[in-house]
Amino acid sequence: QKEVEQNSGPLSVPEGAIASLNCTYSDRGSQSFFWYRQYSGKSPELIMFIYSNGDKEDGRFTAQLNKASQYVSLLIRDSQPSDSATYLCAVNLRQAGTALIFGKGTTLSVSS
Amino acid sequence: SAVISQKPSRDICQRGTSLTIQCQVDSQVTMMFWYRQQPGQSLTLIATANQGSEATYESGFVIDKFPISRPNLTFSTLTVSNMSPEDSSIYLCSVILSYEQYFGPGTRLTVT
Fold first, then answer.
1. Do B105 and A42 touch (CB under 8 A)?
2. Which residues of A touch B101 (CB under 8 A)?
3. Which residue of B has its CA nearest to A6?
4. What is the mean pLDDT of residues B70-94?
5. Which of A93, A98, B17, B42 has its CA 20 to 30 A from that of A111?
């Protein structure tokens, strides 16, 4: 069974620190990898995606992908209380343009 | 990005009844998806709805329970039939635009 695994947390970090969120996936054929943020009672919001091995940076967010280890991570620099949310890792198991499969999410709490 | 609206935003329904959820997108999209998010859980894909063809259902979901329509490239409906309390969930419409997947605001369904 194709799976996307995340530590449910909660992950607690102080304001200004780096938050590191991790995700592993089971299908070596996975093509693309996405990170979503979901505030309580809201729908998921796309933060960023990554296709190639290595790092991809967007503002305070960096996604890291290691296909050999089947591992993708999200780093949030200078964490703010407004970053407190559930972060969902999603993987495209088939081909680009088909529906994503989601992990259970990691709850991040940033304390001021 | 895509602007997605859903109706209703929430509803309370009685056991045994049916509810039809509407999803409207501001762009023409080939693929639309329906997800379910049960309380405290991640997103589970129900089905993929392509215009002009029958919806494709994921394991554990059947057409008789969750019939889907896709009459054009901007609109879809999901019906939750013969509801039971286990169907209480948030139902989310989603689309892919330029290889990025976006979500509607969700329909919060409570079955009593």
1. yes
2. 34, 46, 90, 99-100
3. B42
4. 96
5. B42
Query: Which residue of B lies nearest to A99 if distances are taken between CA atoms?
Result: B33
Q: Edge-to-edge, what's the strand order for the sheet holding A19-25?
A: A4-6, A19-25, A71-76, A61-66, A54-58
Nearest-CA neighbor of A23 among A70, A93, A86? A70
Query: Which range is least confidently modeled, A73-77, A92-96, B2-6, B80-84?
Result: A92-96
With CB atoms and an 8 Å threshold, state whether B43 touches A44.
yes
CB-based contact A102 B92, cutoff 8 Å: no
- The 3-state secondary structure of chain B reads CCCEEEECCEEEECCCCCEEEEEEECCCCCEEEEEEECCCCCEEEEEEEECCCCCEECCCCCCCCCCEEEEECCEEEEEECCCCHHHCEEEEEEEEECCEEEECCCEEEEEC
Amino acid B17 reads: T
Q: CB contact, 8 Å: A40 with chain B?
A: no
**Taking 70 as the threshold, does the pLDDT of residue A94 lie above it?**
no
**In which band, very low, low, confident or very high, does the pLDDT at A8 lie, cut at 50, 70 and 90?**
confident
In three-state secondary structure terms, A96 is coil
- Using CA atoms, how far residue A87 sits from A102, B43, B102, in Å, is 10, 12, 15
- Residue B24, min C-alpha distance to chain A (Å): 15
Instruction: Tell me whether A18 touches chain B (CB under 8 Å).
Output: no
- The pLDDT of residue A96 is 56
